[in-house]
Amino acid sequence: MFGVFAFTSVVDLIISLQEDGYVVGFMEFYTKDGDPYLRTAHGIFICYWDGTVHYLLYLAMAGAIRRRKRYRNLGLYWLGSFVMSIMVFLPGNILGKYSSEIRPAFFLTIPYVLVPCWAGLRVFNQSPEPTCCPPAMVQEEHKKGLLQRPADLALVLYLILAGFFTLFRGLVVLDCPTDACFVYIYQYEPYLRDPVAYPRVQMLVYMFYMLPFFGLAAYALVVPGCSWLPDWALVFAGAIGQAQFSHMGASMHPRTPFTYRVPDDTWACFFVCNLLYALCPHLLAFRCLRQPAFFLRPLPPGSMAHLKKQQ
Length: 311
Description:
The chain has about 300 residues and is an all-alpha fold.
């Protein structure tokens, strides 16, 4: 499956290069008569992401299978990235201005969605990679408060700020009448008003899925033993990486009408805020993988005493 989808990633890369004028005539028939929404700025950038990041992930996972090595972490990142692209792209096609141009080729996305979901479940059900954390280290990490872990404290504050930013942009696309929302959508991110509907769907997906995750992740950084966080941090890191790449790129692409592009005088603020927003779950995933002892479940008291006796 990874080999087949690596081929489709190359096709997507050719589509994006063609739409930006770097190659000519390879996939023009398909983008005109099959999937015209791939010619939008958002469609071009999801093709770029699929043709580069997904392509490398497919090759790495296929190579790991060939060498009988673990690929669960790569698979979780890919799963989050793939699901996020589908969750925004398909509803955007149906709700946006291209809804009247849906062709029979649109239904080819059904196997394109179902097969990777099956593969994603297979990846998720694999056993986690073994950690080299002795029980004594786990117990010691669990005793540390948040103030004794400055990196985790910074991450908690980071997650809280990201949560507020997520909620704010969700309210913006829901036409909140406050002055702050009005100023933001017209002076900082006018792309949120684009009738293609992808940016609105993206902000709503953030609000309904990323916002709860930020809250739960902050909780897991305070309370020890939340063993679910490392896996879900990878999934959400892949999701937000793909989403922010497509959103930031489409906000500045020439295919986006000029009135909906980021203004030149606020470009730096837009870029820095969105880049920091994309880095947040990646830093969280890196912290979980680098020092997982705090998130491991503690051994029962009887087991710990027995282990000490054996030593």
